[in-house]
Carbohydrate-binding module family 19 domain-containing protein
Amino acid sequence: MRAAFLVLSLGLAVSARPMRRDATALQNGQDAISLNAQYKILSTTSSCTSGENSCVTGKFAQCVNGKFVLQSCATGTICAAIPLDSPSTGTLTTCTTQSDLDNRLAATGATVSASSSSSSSSGTTAAAASSASSVTSSDSASTTSGNTTDNSGSGSAAAASNNTSESTGATDNSASGAAVTTSNSTSNGSTDSTSTAAAIGSLSSSDITTNATENNPDAQSSLTLDPRVIATGFLNNGQDVQEAGQVASLTSNNNFINYCLTQGNLPITNGLQITTGSCNPAPIGTIPSVQNMPSAKFANPANGATIAANTEFTITMNINNLDTGNFVNANENYFAAPQQLSAQGQIIGHTHVVIEALSDLAQTTPTNPQQFAFFKGVNTAAVNGAVTADVTSGVPAGAYRLCSINSSSNHQPVIVPIAQHGSLDDCVYVFHCIWRRRNCF
C-alpha cells in the first residue's frame, strides 16, 4: 500500500458525496455521533491531549500544551465530527453545515440509539489520536485516504470558509486543522516498494476547468501528495547542530501541504495582492545552481550622480543570469505559481526599479516601503544584457535611493540555492537638483 497524503480542498466539509451503507461506513457514522455527544460536554477547561482536535462550545478546538485553543467556525457552519468515506475508517473533526452533517450521517445508516449502544472503535478516537495537522485512518484506506468533496464547496477543517472579500476578492481560509493520511505511512513518508506511482503529468499555462481529484493517476491533477516529492529533511528541526541564537525550524512530515490551515484567519493569497496579510500555499519551486544566481548593477544613473530635478531620464541596469521580460498578471496571479527555470537553468522572471526619497544621503533610519517616488516593473527582455526604464517626469529635488527588485515571473523575489551569496539586486544613491538655484533639497 502506498502512503497517501490528501490535500483537503476548501470544499471538504460542505458538499457531501453519497456513501455506501457498508459496515465501515456504518461504524464511521456511529463513531461520529458518539464523538459529537462527547463534544457537547467539553468546556474550555476540559483536559486534553496535545494535538487533539475537538469541538468545544460549538467552536473548533485544538489542544496545545494541554489546553484547548478555540477558533470560531465560519458563518453558517458548525463544528462537528463527520464520518470518513468508506473504505477509510474513522472520523474528521471540522467545521461544516448542519445539513451536511445530517446528510453524511444519514448516508452511513447510523442512528443515535445505535451509536450509544455500540462500543468505541479505533475511528472514534481519530481526532484525539491525530496531530494538529493530521487525522489518521486505517490500513484499509489503501486506495483512498479520507473524505474529499469537490472544490466548489465551502468549509474545511477548523472553520475554513470560502467567502470572498468585497475589498480584495480574497478567499477566506480561516482555518487550522487537518489533512488525512493513511496509517500505514511512515514518519518520513516512505512507501511500500511495490506501490504504483502516479504519472508525473505535465504543467500548463492554460486555464484549468476541472477540479483535482483524489488519487488521480496524473500527479498534477491529484489531491494526493506523491511520496516521491516528500522532503524527509523537513522532519528535522535543525537543533542537532547548535549555534548561538539559533532557533528551531518548523517541521513537517507532509511537506507543509496544509500549513495555511494553521494560520488562523489569514486568507489564502489566491493570486491576489492582499494588503492586510495572507498565507500562500504555492511551493517555492525550482532553484538555480550557484552558477546561475542573478546579479545586477546600475549603469545609469551612477552612484553619487547629480541629475536635474523634474526632468526625464532613463534608468539603465546591467543584469546577469535572469531570463528577463517574463511577468504574469499581477492582479490575478501574484505569487500564484512556483519559481521556474529556463532551459539554460536561469530563473524565468523580470525586474523592477524603485526610487525612494531620503532626508539626505546621510539618512540612517529605514525607509517606509509603502512610500516611493517612482516604481516601474520592467516587462521587456534585456537587450545586450541591459534593461531600461524611463522616468518620464523625473522626480523633485532631493536625495534618493534607486534600487532593483529582481523577481520570478509570478513576482516573488528570486530564490537562490545558498545562504551566503552576494546581493542579487543593486542600489545607488543620487541627487536631483534644481540647477539654476543649485538647490538639491
The CA atoms of residues 120 and 438 lie 86 Å apart. Residues 1-20, 118-196 have pLDDT under 50 and may be disordered. The first strand starts at residue 5 and ends at 6. The radius of gyration is 27 Å.
